[in-house]
Amino acid sequence: VPPPAVDANVVHQPRGKRLVPLVAVVVVLIAGAIWGLTRVGRNDAAPRPTTNTPDIAVLPFTNVGNADDDYFAAGMTDEITSRLGAVRGLGVVPSRATERYARTNKTMREIGGELGVDYVLLGSVRWAEAGNEAARRVRVTMELLRVNDERQLWSTTYDRVIDDIFDVQSDIATQVISRLGL
User: Fold this and answer.
1) What pTM did the predictor assign?
2) Can you tell me the mean pLDDT for 85-99?
């Protein structure tokens, strides 16, 4: 049997030299995968683009009263978030993104960094029960904090007799917008 024909134009490399580029590619892919996996689940805030638009998050309002009244506190949070979202030139984090911060022990700097906001609006709802349901009173207390130094910029309290929950929520949300100068 004659030996196989040898093509003079083909350069044969030893098997080990052909594996080097393949091994290098595999190592780079594995290193990239490990780096990516170590980044998953980290709470590092993504770098924010520099803009002149202030960003705000309305954290879930705390209901200080009966658990049956949690709906009102949630409604206040949603109403104010919605009203702020309609203000041109203001970035507002949706309520769904702030729900995880209900009753959290995180600092405002931590929350602000995670949400990428400049300001946080906090609120609480307390109830004064009267003899009859028609005379229920609600007190909504709010404060606006600047995230970078956790300084309180503004605080107010609204007292209302509840005759129409939606009117009360809308009225308070409108007053908040006014107080913020928006």
Assistant:
1) 0.66
2) 91
